[in-house]
Design goal:
This protein is mainly α and 142 residues long. Helix content is 46%, strand content 8%. The longest helix is centred in the middle third of the chain and has 15 residues.
Length: 142
């Protein structure tokens, strides 16, 4: 079972970290300032994204919609057990209000589904603490 906030119809346009870095370097080399959307070539509704990831890594789960407050409390409890911060209320709010989605041309080239397919045997096998990463970037990834 995999809980999702509400109906899961909120959308997102994930961008690969290397595409984002390339975009930042390119834009940093340009004179002046501008606002551009850093988005990948694929868009997903959250429910669709969770199903797609499950299918690609071979771990399908029943998706269960939960009220955002209940989902946040569950994530906060899990975070305490792991000594980490799994999710913030602002992240939930941003996700559910489509802040991770824009309807503009892709500025990234790497498709999330392609990347997942290439790394499916590695995904979800190891836990990396967000708080530990902030304290010690070398040891947190080993």
């Amino acid at each position: 079972m995999f809980p999702i906030f509400g109906d899961g119809r909120y959308r997102m346009r994930p961008i690969h970290v290397d595409d984002l870095a390339r975009l930042a370097v390119e834009q940093g080399a340009e004179p002046g300032s501008r606002v551009i959307d850093a988005v990948g070539p694929e868009s997903f509704a959250y429910r669709e994204l969770v199903r797609t990831i499950g299918r690609l890594i071979g771990w399908r789960r029943l998706l269960v919609g939960v009220p955002p407050g209940i989902g946040y409390l569950g994530a906060a409890g899990l975070g305490r057990m792991m000594g980490d911060v799994m999710l913030t209320r602002d992240e939930v709010r941003g996700l559910m209000t489509d802040l991770l989605y824009v309807d503009s041309p892709a500025t990234g080239e790497t498709g999330l589904t392609d990347w997942i397919s290439e790394h499916a045997d590695q995904l979800g096998r190891r836990y990396a603490s967000e708080l530990a990463r902030r304290k010690d970037r070398e040891r947190a990834y080993s």
